[in-house]
């Protein structure tokens, strides 16, 4: 399969079937040396979708979705890929078009090239986000912060690594790899982390800096009993085990066996032996009451903090989905909170920027459960931390 054919294949899956580009690109159907170009155009087209559509939709309204995506990804190359000659981009697009649409595709791209970029003052076009998401952020955080988040989401996401202290040290990694540490465990690298031998050997994991901060907030110690209710793929679970120096007990669950298998693979790869994994619906009341020292409830959410490295979420999620998500979060809180020992802590976290799923969710829980006290809550804004947008709350169960 040629690289541009592969790009269209991925874009069709993303926009017509709600697939995720990151999953599709894990098993590439083109040569490895072409994957840089493929990834740039796939993610660039998804990130700039409304902006790209705005460049040509005045010329033709009713167009087959596959043809429209071919035009979109070609315009991305015209405007954002300076190393590719325009004639080559247009020629390849015409070659890929269906026989009866070749002249049409050629006309559209030639006209777009001739007249140049059409800029818009509308934020939803300028930053390619649905209007409802922009309106939500403006209402919750103000216009200035909303624009800062939008700008951040249009840039390729930075990939963070974390050392696995069960298998290596900061000093050893600095000696063997060109990496830059941001703290004791978290680092960035000029080299792709997934290609490092240390990654293959379980000495490092890929984990966003915001996700790492959530785990740090749990304040675990060696020998504790921990519950991780929505644990897969296991990077947070592994970090908990590492901070406990692999001493204690972690009960880690997820909804499907395939997801639990992913968690088990990571634990084996990274040398963790204290995790008891299993399939469990986190909405069903946990049978053990007053048992755990710490509980992590990293709950399903709308994912509005992940739009930099998962840009397709902005096109998948709809406003009407939020109420169902909030209901699931409430069920998870109710089903697991009484499993916490008196005096223990639970951390509730999401990777979204939406007060209904975050601050308001915890406030409602605390109104109903007077024995619990909010110690801290934090919103990690992506533009400030240069990572995913996250929210977490640290809640204590009273002793009396």
Structure description:
The chain is an alpha/beta fold. It has three domains: 117 residues, NusB-like (N-utilizing Substance Protein B Homolog, Chain A); 46 residues; 190 residues, Rossmann fold (3-Layer(aba) Sandwich), CATH 3.40.50.150. It has a seven-stranded mixed β-sheet with strand order 7-6-5-8-9-11-10, with helices on both faces. The protein has a four-stranded antiparallel β-sheet with strand order 2-3-1-4. Strand 6, helix 15 and strand 7 form a beta-alpha-beta unit. Helix 1 packs across helix 5 and helix 5 packs antiparallel against helix 6. The chain starts with a helix and ends with a strand. 42% of the residues are buried.
Secondary structure layout:
Elements: H1 3-17, H2 21-24, H3 35-47, H4 49-54, H5 65-80, H6 86-96, H7 102-115, H8 123-126, H9 131-141, H10 143-153, E1 161-163, H11 170-176, E2 179-181, E3 186-189, H12 197-200, E4 204-206, H13 209-216, E5 225-228, H14 235-243, E6 249-254, H15 257-270, E7 275-279, E8 292-298, H16 313-316, H17 321-336, E9 340-350, H18 359-368, E10 372-380, H19 382-385, E11 390-397
Parallel strand pairs: 5-6, 5-8, 6-7, 8-9
Antiparallel strand pairs: 1-3, 1-4, 2-3, 9-11, 10-11
Helix pairs in contact: 1-3, 1-5, 3-5, 5-6, 5-7, 6-7, 9-10
């Amino acid at each position: 399969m040629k690289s541009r054919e592969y790009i269209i294949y991925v874009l069709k899956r993303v926009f017509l079937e709600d697939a995720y580009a990151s999953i599709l690109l894990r098993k590439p159907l083109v040569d490895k040396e072409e994957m840089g170009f493929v990834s740039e155009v796939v993610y660039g087209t998804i990130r700039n979708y409304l902006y790209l559509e705005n460049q040509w939709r005045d010329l033709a309204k009713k167009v087959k979705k596959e043809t429209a995506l071919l035009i979109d990804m070609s315009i991305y190359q015209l405007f954002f890929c300076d190393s590719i000659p325009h004639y080559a981009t247009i020629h390849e697009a015409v070659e890929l078009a269906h026989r009866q649409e070749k002249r049409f595709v050629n006309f559209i791209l030639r006209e777009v090239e001739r007249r140049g970029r059409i800029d818009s003052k509308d934020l939803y076009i300028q930053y390619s986000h649905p209007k409802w998401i922009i309106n939500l952020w403006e209402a919750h955080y103000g216009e200035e912060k909303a624009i800062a988040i939008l700008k951040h989401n249009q840039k390729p996401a930075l990939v963070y690594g974390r050392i696995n202290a069960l298998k290596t040290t900061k000093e050893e990694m600095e000696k063997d790899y060109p990496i830059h540490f941001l703290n004791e465990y978290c680092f960035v690298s000029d080299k792709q982390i997934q290609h490092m031998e240390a990654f293959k050997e379980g000495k490092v994991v890929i984990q966003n800096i915001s996700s790492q901060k959530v785990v740090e907030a749990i304040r675990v110690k060696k020998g504790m009993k921990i519950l991780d209710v929505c644990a897969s793929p296991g990077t947070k679970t592994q970090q908990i085990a590492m901070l406990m120096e692999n001493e204690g007990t972690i009960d880690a669950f997820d909804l499907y066996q395939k997801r639990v298998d992913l968690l088990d693979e990571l634990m084996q790869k990274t040398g963790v032996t204290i995790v008891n994994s299993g399939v469990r619906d986190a909405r069903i009341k946990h049978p053990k009451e007053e048992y755990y020292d710490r509980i992590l409830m990293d709950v399903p959410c709308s994912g509005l903090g992940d739009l930099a490295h998962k840009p397709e979420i902005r096109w998948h999620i709809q406003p009407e989905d939020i109420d169902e998500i909030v209901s699931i979060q409430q069920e998870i809180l109710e089903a697991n909170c009484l499993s916490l020992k008196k005096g223990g802590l639970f951390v509730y976290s999401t990777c979204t920027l939406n007060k209904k799923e975050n601050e308001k969710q915890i406030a409602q829980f605390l109104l109903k459960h007077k024995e619990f006290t909010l110690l801290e809550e934090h919103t990690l804004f992506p533009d400030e931390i240069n990572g995913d947008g996250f929210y977490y709350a640290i809640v204590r169960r009273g002793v009396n």
